[in-house]
Amino acid sequence: MNFDLPQDLLNFLDELDHFIATQIRPLEAKDDNVRFFDHRREYARTDFENGGLPRHEWEALLDEATALSEAAGYWRFSAPKKFGGRDGSNLWMAVIRDRFTQMGLGLHNDLQNEHSIVGNFPFVAMFEHFGTPEQQEEFILGGFARTRRVAFGLTEPMHGSDATHMETRGTPETRDGVAGWRIDGAKMWISGMHTASHCAVFCRTSGEPGDARGITCLLVPRDTPGMRIDEYLWTFNMPTDHPRMTFENCWVPESAMLGPLGGGLAIAQSFVHQNRIRQAASSLGAATFCLEESLRYARERKTFGHDLARNQAIQFPLVEIATQCEMLRLLIYKTAWEMDRLDHKEVEQQLSDRVSMCNYWANRLVCEAADRAMQVHGGIGYSRHKPFEHIYRHHRRYRITEGSEEIQMRKVAGYLFGYTGPRKKTAQKD
Predict the structure, then answer these.
(1) Helix H segments across 226-378?
(2) Superfamily name and number for 150-266
(3) Cα separation values, 109 from 28, 202, 239, 396, 423, Å
């Protein structure tokens, strides 16, 4: 048993560090771009007079950093080689995301806008496994060219975690001799819709509420009549790009369908595991950053004549966070490594519980670590002149949005008790 990371991965991390130091950090320091990361970050990023959307200057800076990474051959790293990527594995992506967030806030990796110089592309897996060749050409390559951006229209105002009870309907309807679908319903929290070219709308086309089958994914162009953005919902961490939307007599042709008729739920679930393990690694890295900053400050800060670090009230909580970080890092890396040894579809049956363990615990841990860092740093830790409040506000969302921790614990319980997963056969015999 060897726990060493591959040497070529370590070499790649060094390469990324050099790229960040020589190209990304100088861009971050240019023209007061640091305002997007220092105490002014929330105001600098948010156009409060325009629905709370991201400011154009902020998104332009992210695009500039992405262009540098694309030119250097890093941005598409996780994508398949046939689409210009480098077949980046789950293990490598987990280690990279862990490394990046350990660096703290910066232009190299800012997940508030799903931005990183090493990109994560769930839409690639979605179109690779379910799209037609024409759709792959349009949306995968078009996505990398930034001519296509697809928002994910699954959640509804009254239906979040249980997508099988969605009320949005897709009804067969022919218009001007062309067969298609009329969409009626409402969606909520459709991230990225302000810059999206299409919305992947999941709607019930057959079956009864609660049925897993009968949900279909339809790709709706942004300018389609009947698709309306009602408002952008302001959140704990601003800016927002999460609208509430209405679909009323919204029609698309049959060619807009992604994947099989009635098989949309499988599409929605097709990339959650790789997304969750990478996001777990990001939360772990951010928790480690909070820990290391707290350790450094506690050694430097003098109180009552000696280092703050000498107080056990400071030591013991940080010991617990450090212990959890070490254990979680081993579980995340091992789970990512095991994912790489399985076929894409087998992960759901063999490892879904481990991915959920990693994700919900990492998201909980980073919130605890950020809160503890504020406490250790005292008043300055509570201020926006330290990054901890931003880390807390940002990562708190993942205890809900990346599959709520209750849903993920339910998944783990299903595996433990044999309702699903590898224990199901033996449990049925008992």
Answers:
(1) 264-269, 272-300, 312-340, 346-350, 352-377
(2) Butyryl-CoA Dehydrogenase, subunit A, domain 2 (2.40.110.10)
(3) 12, 30, 16, 17, 39
Q: How far apart (Å, rounded) are the C-alpha atoms in residues 362 and 327? A: 11
Tokens standing for residue 178: 């062309």
Take residue 289 and report the two structure tokens written for it: 């950053």
Q: For residue 32, report the phi and psi dihedrals to the nearest 5 degrees.
A: 60, 30
Q: What are phi and psi of 248, to 5 degrees?
A: -140, 115
Q: How far apart are CA 140 and CA 185, in angstroms?
A: 28
Which residue's structure tokens are 């430097």?
A: 300
Give pLDDT tens digits for 186-228: 999 999 999 999 999 999 999 999 998 999 999 999 999 999 9
Helix, strand and coil percent figures for the chain, each rounded to 5 = 55, 15, 30
According to DSSP, residue 212 is labeled S
Measured from the Cβ of residue 221, the count of other Cβ atoms closer than 10 Å reads: 12
Query: Within 107-244, where are the H helices?
Result: 122-130, 133-135, 142-144
Vertex 42: Cα angle to 36 and 44 (nearest 5):
50
Class of domain 271-430: mainly alpha
> Strand 109-110 vs strand 53-54: parallel, antiparallel, or unpaired?
unpaired
Global pTM? 0.94
8 A C-beta contact, residue 430 and residue 423? no
